[in-house]
Amino acid sequence: REDYLINILRLAEGEGVVRTSKLASFMKVAPASVTEMLHTLSDAGLVNYEKYRGVSLTPKGMECAQNLRRKHHIVERFLTDVLDIDHQAAHDEACLMEHAISDDSANRMCRIIGTRIDCDCGTCNNPCNSHKCEYTLSDLSSGDVGIISHLKSNDLSKVKKLLSMGFIPGREVVLESKQINGPRVVRIGDSIFALDMDLASTVCLEDDSN
Length: 210
Prior knowledge:
This protein is α+β, with helices and mostly antiparallel strands. The protein has eight helices and seven strands. Strand 4 and strand 5 (about 185-190) form a beta hairpin. It is elongated and about 70 Å long. The two termini are about 40 Å apart.
């Protein structure tokens, strides 16, 4: 069912209605099978289907399809950008994982990737873009404690370095000491690191002012 929804979304871009013959050809399935599934999706309130005219997504179906495409985008970028998996393999794995991964896990991946990524999923909502970075590790005073929100940098090497050191969204960090325009000595778990200002500014923290 989810494959049908996301493929209707792909084929309907700029048109709204998709011919059943086009959908059958795209998915490489028999037209009779497409018709049967569209009746099922229509009964579930996910599509508008009219014989001889085609199919379109309902608001409920659109939300489901866009969420699937968003998950695909996040997983694919996580696999290529963080794990260095080649694009084709990442795409193939994302096609499988988009159906199984939870919203929470996708959001966590999104936060690890950071706000440097602009979602190209059309009209879907990408929480990555809602993460502001007004408060960073570099802003802490000696002895302050913070919770990592996300990592923000256009330099993948910095993101990977911080991830390998344990700077994962949701973890607590403590600023042990700092020097003006100098390194920040940070404790995360049982490890202590000295980060320069640029790297420390990459680590965005949750705003606990509220």
